[in-house]
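Exercise: predict the fold of this chain.
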Amino acid sequence: MVWRISAGVGPLPGAGLGAAEVSRREVTEDEATAIAAAEAADRRAAARDYQAAGHADRAGRLRREAQAIESALDITPSRDDA
C-alpha cells in the first residue's frame, strides 16, 4: 500500500480552487508506520514534560493519543514510556 502525504495549507482567500495545493509525496507502508510511530513517541515525550510541569490532565491526554496510535500499529512502548 502506498500512502500520500500532503503539506498543503488549504485554500487562501482570493485564490482559485487548488491554488494552495502542493505536490504530494508518496510513502511506503513502512515509511507511514515509521512516521506514525514517531508521532506516538513525540506525544509520550511531551506527556512526560507536561507531567513534570504539573499538568497531569494534558499528560494523560497525550498518553492516550500515543496509546491509540501504538495500538493501531500494534506497537508496545518501552517500559520507560508506558
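Check your answer against the key: The mean pLDDT is 82.
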